[in-house]
Amino acid sequence: MVTADYGLGIDLGTTHTAAAVSTGGHVESVRLGARRMEIPSAVFVKDDGELLVGEAAERRGRDEPGRLAREFKRRLGDSVPILAGGMPFSAHALTGKLLRFVLDTVTRGQGGPPARVALTYPAYWGPYKREQLDQAIRLADAGPVRLLSEPEAVARWRNVASGQTVAVYDLGGSGFDVAVLRREGDTFTLLGTPEGVDQLGGGDFDAAVYAHVLGALDGVDLGDPETAPALARLRRDCVEAKESLSFDTEVTVAVAVPGRHTRVRISRSVFEGLIALPVRDTADATRRALRSAGVTADDLSGILLAGGSSRIPLVRRVLADEFGPLVAADAHPELSVALGAASISRRAPAVADSAGPASAGPASAGPASAGTGKSPVDEPSEEHVAASRGSAATAGAASEISRRESAAVVSSGGPRTETAATEPAGGSPGAPGAPALGATTVPAGSGATTVPAGPGSPVPGEPAAAAPDRPRSPAERLGLSLRGPEKLDFTDLRTPVDPWAAAEAEAAARAAEHQFGGVSGDAAPAVPSQAVEPGTQFIAAAPGADAAPGRRPPVPAMAGFVVMIVVSAVAGVAISSSLSDAREGEAAGPGGSASAAGPGGIPEANLVIRVDTGGPMGSASWQPTIQTLNAATGKREPLTGTEPGDTLPRWSNDRSMIALTHRNPDRTNEIYVMDRDGGNRRKLVGGVTGGRVVWSPDNRTVAYVKVRNGVPQIFTMPIDGGPAEQITVSANDKDDPVWTPDGKSIIYWAKIDGVRSLWKISVSGVSDNRAVTDPGLGDAVDPAISPDGSLILFTRKIDDNYDIWSVEPDGSNAKPVTSDATREMDPTWSPDGTWLAYVRGDLNHPAVVIERADGADEQTLTTNGAREGHPCWF
User: Fold this and answer.
1) For the purposes of burial, counting CB atoms within 10 Å of the CB of 679, is it exposed (0-12), middle (13-18) or buried (19 or more)?
2) DSSP-assigned beta bridge partners for residue 22
3) Lesser CB count within 10 Å: N end or C end of the chain?
């Protein structure tokens, strides 16, 4: 297909979607709707199954709300389907429909499809959410697309200069977030962790005005069906009144409902009184973002406003009162993200035509610029290119590759996917016509961009090198190919007899790889409860694959022997006996192989344990150190690379790395990651609780607990850099996260109504929690999942009695494993799942005990009054 010579930037917002084009050195917004530049992010399902998008969808949805899907962007990654018109849709399928509508609308207006496309995403999204966006891109048959974070798009549109630090304050229709960015040369670095207030935005302000007007309608039956159409019109009038109050000091809303006709006057001061508290919350979030970034208001060159609701005068006044004269407004803040994406779209990969693969961008005389040298927690969100598989030119190309793997050719015969690490240095000038930040607080600068090269980044024009030292799974060491068939895009899935066959095979292969990698299973002593009120109600939701109309959902990831049978059939080998032999392999760690068995059949795989000296646990004189302990021989050795103050060590699932919590003299805590031999020790994140850090099944991400707004929350973070993603949001005390073997969920405990129970939550971050243990069982903490995912060990506490119990993942068959009168806690599985270890004794006299999974052959490994705790075997 012939493409037109323009770049397209798209902002797929939660409530509204906007687009802009870059052509002839000029950037301008594109009208997507009949009434406004942007359109509602909405999809309507007609009786015949046809889909309406945008304004038409919203219009039809007023009369038939059950057929309307909105705000599906926040549901990306949620396995529970979205029902519209009685038909189930996945969030990424609806997002793909919205994206396709935008592409078609712009193509008609511009006389041809774009040569380049740039698409934005929230800065706080992690790899899982971005992978869901990649799926939507493929379903939309969008071709190669460059992804960049929303705050970076705003910063580029506002021409932030090199060396300047800005905060991007984005208050949209249904959400608020703020991020701190610093530009060095052509690279934007995300500083600290983005903050936000979920489900706070213009929609809440609309509701406040509507409620205020309804308060003047005493005596009107709001539940009368005949009143509903009039109330729908009234709600729309209230939205227009709110928008007018950004420019006028007073508006009048006409009310015409059955039995009542009146006019309600609203002044700007009344409106500001209605929204003062939530606006203040956004200022508080901005302050937290600055603190997380390690900067003050004096360090900022500006606070850039984005999102339609940021045009409200109260927003600017509150920010000015709090942070000084730093606020830099835009005439059309609701379009800033799309305009910024369009300004960089000129450097996105060109859409491939029949002549060959997607363009790798302009030629460069040298490699991409080097990284900034910051720690992983300070590194910017990864920009990457999602390459469509819809054409022969891009068939088999990877849709997302991390910096660490950016040098690898992912598929056979396909072109190398362009990533941030392969982009050339230098670039085009900034966005012409963009409001220069320097006009208010920050001098204008170049809008060119180059993303820092990560480890292993190839020099443009040179052959791609082998992937760097990513830990291989046991299955890979066995020589099994678990990649599965290449993903097919939406167009390709229309023709096969069984279009989900390839997806099912890939799901099974991925599940097998997760199974071989195992899951972290032991636990740390519970963090003392925070004094917080019981929080949000959890929504029960069974995990499952996304579904779409007329399609059979892919087979969910399977655990245990079912997965091994699938992979054995694919590979043509029997791996059940070889798996344990390869569990550690060359990554066994000092002093033992996971498969070898010593006296009595005890696995010789080393445990890592915490050894306590000095004063009581947690006191100023307490000195924890880390050692390895061979359960078969009793041999103990200091763990190379650890330091005094290290505690709660955790093997990665392939035992090639170790993560641990480090306690500083000032009693703050940090998380470190290092290789099994003690090399490459590096700080990952600080300011965490003293609880456990656990590995994802693929060993690329860790989960941990950090206090936010006075409440402990579970976060995940890639070990190779990138922003943290907050998984939980409730106000309940919580701790002890551990990943399920399929990598889709995290098990943890949450304290509700005074009882700590085990809960399960999707790693997508949506509130689809469900309970695993019953509160009537008593406190349940320290979950440890068996390597095959079939059983969860945990510590059950009743009064002062601590015992190890087990429960199946669905919450059934809870029963005791130990029953000693002495405290028992911190269970962990052996890598082959045949033994378990735990701690017996009070917190200041812990001893490591092991026994078979069936309860036989109990042995105490700790002797002579030593204080050994927190064993990690698997």
Assistant:
1) exposed
2) 7, 27
3) N
- CA 749-753-756 angle, to 5 degrees, is 20
* Rounded-to-integer distance, Cα 98 and Cα 675, Å: 44
Task: Report residue 475: phi and psi, to 5°.
Answer: -65, -40
Q: How many CB atoms lie within 10 A of CB 528?
A: 11
Mean pLDDT, range 785-806, rounded to an integer? 92
Closest CA to 446 of 423, 426, 421: 426
What mean pLDDT do residues 499-515 have? 41
Q: Walk across the sheet containing 792-798 and list its strands.
A: 779-785, 792-798, 801-807, 815-816
Q: What distance in Å separates the CA atoms of residue 96 and residue 585, rounded to the nearest whole number? A: 43
**Can you spell out the DSSP letters for 551-612?**
-PPPPPP--THHHHHHHHHHHTS--HHHHHHHTTGGG--TT--SS-B-GGG-B-PEEEEEEE
State mean pLDDT over 88-106.
95
Q: Determine which helix (DSSP H) or strand (DSSP E) holds 206, and give its type and residue range.
A: helix 202-214
State the DSSP code for 301.
S
User: What are the angstrom distances between the C-alpha of 303 and each of 201, 343, 388?
Assistant: 18, 20, 36
How far apart are alpha carbons 679 and 658 in whole angstroms? 10
Q: Helix axis angle, 268-293 relative to 313-323, nearest 10°?
A: 40
Token duo for residue 155: 């910063």
Amino acid residing at 209: V
- Mean of pLDDT values over 268-277: 92
* CA separation for the pair 281, 275 (Å, rounded): 10
- Report the distance separating Cα 217 and Cα 835, nearest Å: 69
**Position 769 confidence tier, pLDDT thresholds 50, 70, 90:** low
Closest by CA position to 80, among listed 768, 807, 867:
768
pLDDT of residue 793 exceeding 50: yes
- In 3D space, the residue among 243, 310, 311, 245 whose CA is nearest the CA of residue 282 turns out to be 310
- Backbone phi, then psi, for 419, in 5-degree steps? -125, 175
728 within 8 A of 713, measured Cβ to Cβ = yes
Q: Tokens 């973070």 belong to which residue?
A: 717
Q: Which tokens hold the place of 750?
A: 């949450």
Chain centroid to Cα 383, Å, comes to: 14
d(CA 594, CA 212): 67
H-state helical runs in 76-125: 91-110
* Whole-number Å distance between alpha carbons of 780 and 802: 10
Rounded-to-integer distance, Cα 462 and Cα 464, Å: 6
Mean pLDDT within 519-528: 35
| Segments of 602-681 assigned E as strands | 606-614, 622-630, 636-638, 646-651, 657-663, 669-675
Which residues are 609's β-sheet partners?
Answer: 627
Pairing of strands 116-121, 7-12: parallel
Separation between Cα atoms, residue 712 and residue 728, nearest integer Å: 9
d(CA 85, CA 57): 12
pLDDT band with cut points at 50, 70 and 90 for residue 563: very low
The least confident of 340-354, 537-551, 771-785 is 537-551
**Whether residue 291 has pLDDT greater than 90:** yes
Closest CA to 94 of 52, 148, 146: 52
Q: Are 563 and 515 in contact (CB under 8 A)?
A: yes
Is the Cα torsion angle 727, 732, 734, 740 positive or negative in sign? negative
* DSSP per-residue string spanning 169-191: EEE-SSEEEEEEEEEETTEEEEE
Residues 6+ apart with CB under 8 A from 325: 441
Pick from 616, 627, 874: nearest CA to 739 = 874
Tell me which residue of 758, 745, 770 sits closest to 540, measured CA to CA. 770
